[in-house]
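Quick one, probably user error.
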């Protein structure tokens, strides 16, 4: 079983550097892959209200036979529930579905700048944190502009910003901003959602040289950059493969080649434009 190193967040909480995401895993199919992941050594599990599978994740956690304190559970507030009171109610609903009384990390899923409610929403998360119901709070898909407003207008610095990040979108400026302010960078779609990234000949050549798969090479790139990373798969062999990235290192040249693939191409929406309830 893989041993995953931890990263210390800005409030002292330790989070496993590599975890398991369940985006687009149907509610009636999520228990088996989460169970497989826990057995393979994953301890960070990342879900969201929008995925509609919190209940299944909670059942897998309850049946896993692993002490709750060994697991790090993240969930996220959906867009329709932004606003102070709405956020508090939505958090209660997520806890109930997960079957737990505290999450380890709670995130605002999208900033929705056109609606301009994320500062108010963040203040609800600050209350959740102050009440000890989330061990850490953070955001997802926030840009530097959105983060600056939180830093200027609220009290708690986000512990994490979870953003689309992979070699085609390395987010160098945003990562530097995070480092400056003590915000951990967490990568979603870390291997590009199967949309051609892993077929890149540069990645293939590195994979051949180090004797690992293209996915393992990209995940190792994330690890060596210091990112938190949450690959998703429902295939047991790939679930196990994705966590097996701590027994090799990429050279500085390898890291540079991967970052040089940056083209700015996204597989998901632009956070400045995304506005879906």
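Nope, works fine. Designed sequence:
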């Amino acid at each position: 079983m893989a041993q995953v190193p931890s990263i210390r967040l800005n409030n002292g909480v330790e989070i496993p550097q590599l975890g398991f995401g369940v985006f687009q895993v149907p509610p009636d199919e999520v228990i088996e892959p989460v169970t497989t992941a826990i057995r393979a050594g994953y301890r960070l599990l990342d879900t969201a209200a929008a995925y509609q599978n919190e209940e299944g994740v909670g059942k897998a956690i309850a049946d896993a036979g692993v002490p709750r304190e060994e697991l790090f559970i993240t969930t996220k507030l959906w867009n329709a529930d932004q606003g102070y009171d709405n956020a508090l109610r939505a958090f209660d609903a997520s806890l109930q579905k997960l079957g737990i009384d505290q999450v380890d990390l709670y995130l605002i899923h999208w900033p929705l700048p056109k609606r301009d409610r994320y500062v108010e929403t963040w203040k609800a998360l600050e209350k959740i944190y102050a009440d000890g119901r989330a061990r850490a709070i953070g955001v997802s898909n926030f840009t530097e502009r959105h983060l600056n407003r939180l830093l200027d207008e609220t009290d708690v610095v986000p512990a994490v910003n979870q953003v689309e990040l992979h070699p085609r979108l390395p987010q160098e400026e945003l990562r530097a901003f995070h480092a400056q302010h003590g915000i951990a960078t967490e990568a979603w779609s870390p291997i590009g959602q199967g949309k051609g990234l892993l077929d890149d000949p540069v990645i293939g050549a590195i994979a051949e040289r180090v004797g690992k798969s293209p996915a393992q090479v990209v995940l190792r790139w994330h690890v060596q950059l210091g990112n938190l990373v949450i690959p998703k798969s429902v295939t047991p062999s790939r679930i196990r493969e994705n966590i097996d990235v701590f027994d090799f290192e990429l050279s500085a040249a390898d890291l540079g080649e991967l970052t040089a693939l940056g083209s700015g191409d996204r597989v998901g929406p632009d956070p400045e434009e995304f506005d879906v309830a």
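The first strand starts at residue 6 and ends at 8.
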